[in-house]
Amino acid sequence: MIDLLPIAISAVVVAAFVIAISRKFSLSPRYERKPRNRSLWSAQDHGEDPTDEGNHERS
User: Fold this and answer.
1) Which of 2, 35, 38, 47 has the most CB atoms around it within 10 Å of its CB?
2) Alpha-carbon span 16 to 56, nearest angstrom
3) What residue ranges do the domains of the chain occupy?
């Protein structure tokens, strides 16, 4: 049991270090997903009527 104590302590220290670094640095905005406008084809898959002019504009 005492043999596992240094491993557990080092795991906690490494986890805290990784969390601190990840909060400081963020990913580039180019990797963030942006909402896409649905095409007329995919709007039909979601039950939207593509002939309704205002329906596909709001998504």
Assistant:
1) 38
2) 46
3) 1-27
Contacts of 43 (CB under 8 A, 6+ apart): 49, 50, 55, 56, 59
Instruction: Decide: 52 and 42 in contact? Cβ < 8 Å.
Output: no
Q: Which two tokens stand for residue 13?
A: 């220290």
Q: What are the tens digits of pLDDT across the range 5-32?
A: 999 999 999 999 999 998 888 767 777 7
pTM of the model: 0.43
CA distance 5 to 11: 10
Tokens 């670094």 belong to: 21
- Residue carrying structure tokens 């220290």: 13
